[in-house]
Amino acid sequence: MYSLYFTALKSLAVKETHRYLRIWVQTLVPPVITTSLYFIIFGNLIGGRIGQMAGFSYMEFIVPGLIMMSAITSSYSNVSSSFFSQKFQKNIEELLIAPVPTHVIILGFITGGLGRSLMVGTIVSAISLFFVPLHVYSWGIVIITLLMTAILFSLAGLLNGIFAQSFDDVSIVPTFVLQPLTYLGGVFYSISMLPIFWQRVSRINPIVYMISGFRYGFLGVKDVPIGVSLGILVLFIAVLYGVCWHLIEKGRGLRS
User: Fold this and answer.
1) What does the alpha-carbon distance between residue 245 and residue 241 come to, in Å, rounded to a whole number?
2) What predicted TM-score, i.e. pTM, was given to this entire model?
């Protein structure tokens, strides 16, 4: 029985991987170009005037945030667009009637989002080497934070795909929710620079904890304790996984 489940998971994961690799010009190239422009504009042109932040050059300070931003966007968009496309084309019904647990379906989509996120993050990291030397304070924290963040936003993308009723619904959340939260999550600044009131407001933003943890892995500096950052990630992953599992089990928005 478990071998059949593994085969189903492998098939779905391979399908999702082939999907974003087949259209790599649309899935891998745009985030790399966008992030490269951030490196040039904010790092080279503006960074020299800003000076150092937390003992590092401005370019070195923003690189972890830019890598995390590209990873977040990639994992979210991959799963949300893929799941909704299958729902729109009625292919999702084949998965729902297949003799596999809901956990296998969720893990299959997560694998696709995780793979694309790691690939984009790796490419962006390689490009950053043209601008700044590589600083890694803790490889363990870097890897754990990146993996957990990619899983979290893959689940968030899955949730978006479940509720979406049109392709416009798939793009609304990234444009009006995800992108503002990312920019206000400390990618280009440390929240310690803000007034006390706005520091407290910023802590409501969950992306602050992810970027802080990832930056700590690279530079050893943080806005919030690393234990809190990892705890927030675990909590959100557990909650979103439970919600996605419940919705798929009940067929919410999936069965016409």
Assistant:
1) 6
2) 0.92
Token pair for residue 93?
């019904």
- Residue 148: both structure tokens together: 């957990």
The tokens describing 136, both together, are 């890694």
Please return the burial class of 203, using the count of CB atoms within 10 Å of its CB with bins 0-12, 13-18 and 19+.
middle
Residue with token string 């945030």: 65
* Alpha-helical segments (H) within the chain: 2-22, 24-27, 29-38, 47-50, 58-88, 92-97, 102-128, 139-163, 167-173, 179-183, 196-202, 206-219, 226-250
Q: How far apart are CA 215 and CA 59, in angstroms?
A: 12
Per-residue pLDDT of the chain (256 residues; tens, 9 = 90+): 667 778 888 888 999 999 899 989 888 898 888 888 888 887 666 766 777 777 888 888 999 999 999 999 999 999 999 999 888 887 777 777 777 888 999 999 999 999 999 999 999 999 988 888 888 999 999 999 999 999 999 999 999 999 888 888 888 888 888 888 888 888 888 888 889 988 898 999 999 999 999 999 999 998 999 999 999 999 999 999 999 999 988 877 676 5
